[in-house]
Amino acid sequence: MKKLTLCFSGFALAGGMATLPSTAFAQDPEMGGYIGGGLGYYRLNDEDFPDSEDELDDNRWSWRGQVGVQFNPVVSLEGGYTDFGDLDDGNLELDADGTFVSALVHLPLGGGFAPYGKIGQLWWDVERTVTTSDGGLIGGDTTVARSSEDGNDTFYGVGVRFGEGPGLQMRIEYDRFALDDADADMASVNLQYRF
Predict the structure, then answer these.
(1) pLDDT at 75 exceeding the cut of 50
(2) Which range marks the domain in which residue 93 is found?
(3) Quick one: which of 175, 77, 56 has its CA closest to 126?
(4) What percent of the chain has pLDDT over 70?
(5) What is the pLDDT of residue 118?
(6) SS (H, E, C) the chain
């Protein structure tokens, strides 16, 4: 339920940015709302939950959805939801997701090619499950310990946008997230439709 609330609140927040009057978009062709999503592959390093090397270090797929507003060729603002998926490292399982808001600064170079940088805030939720067993010595008992944390951290990224004006666009980007003591480096491919 908490994940559904995070997802819904992220899209509600982001959707509010895309509800600018359509007449404003019609008056300025450089301005427009967009909606999109993508797939990412990330590497997470979490020093709080040790394995044999005293850290959880894993790679996983993730997905995201975003809604935003392109104010002009240079500046856009977006928000959305990122699901980092489930990670496991032996007896440890970690499930992380969050909602975000970010500002992007584009450098339009012509031909629909625009490198950009971004900075934002991620409101994250992490659930950890640790399973231990007595190895069958005392009836094969298994103990499960669960904990949940939430918080927010600043993140940043760089990328390249292909496409301009209304229509389909593609973004390839790299983001560095912090989830408390864990760092996640994510590369992603995103498609968005600009209204």
Answers:
(1) yes
(2) 2-194
(3) 56
(4) 74
(5) 98
(6) CHHHHHHHHHHHHHHHHCCCCHHHHHHCCCCEEEEEEEEEEEEEEECCCCCCCCCEEEEEEEEEEEEEEECCCCEEEEEEEEEEEEEEECCEEEEEEEEEEEEEEECCCCCCEEEEEEEEEEEEEEEEEEEEECCCCCCCCEEEEEEEEEEEEEEEEEEEEECCCCEEEEEEEEEEEEECCEEEEEEEEEEEEEC
- Residue found by looking up tokens 């625009």 in the block: 114
How many other C-beta atoms can be found within 10 angstroms of the C-beta atom of residue 189?
Answer: 13
* Six-digit token string for 50: 């040790």
Question: Number of folded domains in the chain?
Answer: 1
Dump pLDDT digits (tens) for 21-39.
444 444 556 789 999 999 9
Report the CATH number that the domain containing residue 45 is assigned in CATH. 2.40.160.20
Say what the pLDDT of residue 28 is: 57
pLDDT of residue 52: 43
Q: Each residue of 82-93: pLDDT tens digit? A: 998 887 777 778
> Which tokens go with 26?
């019609």
Q: Which residue has the tokens 């389909």?
A: 168
139: left (phi over 0), alpha (psi -120 to 50) or beta: left
- In which band, very low, low, confident or very high, does the pLDDT at 2 lie, cut at 50, 70 and 90? low
Give the whole-angstrom CA distance, residue 179 versus residue 48. Answer: 11
Residues 190/178, Cβ–Cβ less than 8 Å: no
